[in-house]
Amino acid sequence: xxxxxxxxxxxxxxxxxxxxxxxxxxxxxxxxxxxxxxxxxxxxxxxxxxxxxxxxxxxxxxxxxxxxxxxxxxxxxxxxxxxxxxxxxxxxxxxxxxxxxxxxxxxxxxxxxxxxxxxxxxxxxxxxxxxxxxxxxxxxxxxxxxxxxxxxxxxxxxxxxxxxxxxxxxxxxxxxxxxxxxxxxxxxxxxxxxxxxxxxxxxxxxxxxxxxxxxxxxxxxxxxxxxx
Length: 228
Prior knowledge:
Layout: H1 3-6, H2 9-29, H3 35-50, H4 54-65, H5 68-74, H6 76-81, H7 83-88, H8 90-114, H9 119-125, H10 132-142, H11 146-170, H12 176-196, H13 200-220, H14 222-227
């Protein structure tokens, strides 16, 4: 087949939409199956099986990626609607996201470092719990591997989205404020998008926690620029 076909923007866009539509169908039958996980795995499998270079897919895939910005801004709607509730519980939310941010930063980088990973690997792990655009820039400035940072950050969000709320309830955490704070702090936008379907309060708190965590971790890693 002509390689020029795969380099057309429409190929990447069409492939993404078709695989996502299939993933949504599977999600309706098995709600534990995350559409983004299936879409990512499906596209990777198709590219590998057909021998299509990622660069060819990316020509169109980047058009889809442009929608990430507006989609993330859309998560601010429940945040706006729940402003009063967030304000009333602000001390508890800030305490939770501060503790969670520090724990995520120290555990991710510390465990990887203790296992003997190279510097560019363990610094890549540090910002895994913040939203992808922020994570990539932190990784780049710390001398890590941005491409690996995208993968780790996305997987963190996917895992948190798929099992986070259930795991929290299993541990006895049932309050909307607590669940929203935990998911927003640990699983950024992907986890927050999951909560939109379940509770507007959870989604609003999660959106606030996601934004605050991105700012907080960005400030925490500033000293590392000079230390490293």
